[in-house]
Amino acid sequence: MTASTRRTVLSLYMRVFRIARSWQAQSGVASDTETEKKYMLQEASTLFRQNQQLTDPESIKRCLEECEARIEIGLHYRNPYPRAMHLPPLGLATQKGRKLRAQQRLRKQAKPVYLQSHDDS
């Protein structure tokens, strides 16, 4: 990891913590605010530690894009949780003769950047 990439990663990590420190839940209820703050801190810690060993510049770039997208979406909608992906199972149109594997590949390609770190459950 280059020095500039490291600086960018640490900057994003600290930005998440600063946002969490000043976060107010949309409902205005103190318990909701605390729950959302804890979620943000836990999610950031988990994902940054999970991706700590990445060395491929392309993978690092994708993770940084995901982090930036999740920050911007969270600030815009005032909701720290990732937005749901509404795509029914086997709901993508395919060409004649394609099987389940093609459907799974299409679903993976249709997954938004801010949900790349979440598994298909």
UniProtKB/TrEMBL annotation:
Region of interest: Disordered: 96-121
Matching Pfam families: Complex1_LYR
Ranges for domain Complex 1 LYR protein: 7-71
Cellular component annotations (GO), alphabetically ordered: mitochondrion
InterPro entries registered for this protein in UniProt: Complex1_LYR_dom, Complex1_LYR_LYRM1, LYRM1
Superkingdom of source: Eukaryota
Biased amino acid composition, Basic residues: 96-110
Similarity comment text for this entry: Belongs to the complex I LYR family.
Name by which UniProt lists this protein: Complex 1 LYR protein domain-containing protein
Organism from which the protein derives: Eleginops maclovinus
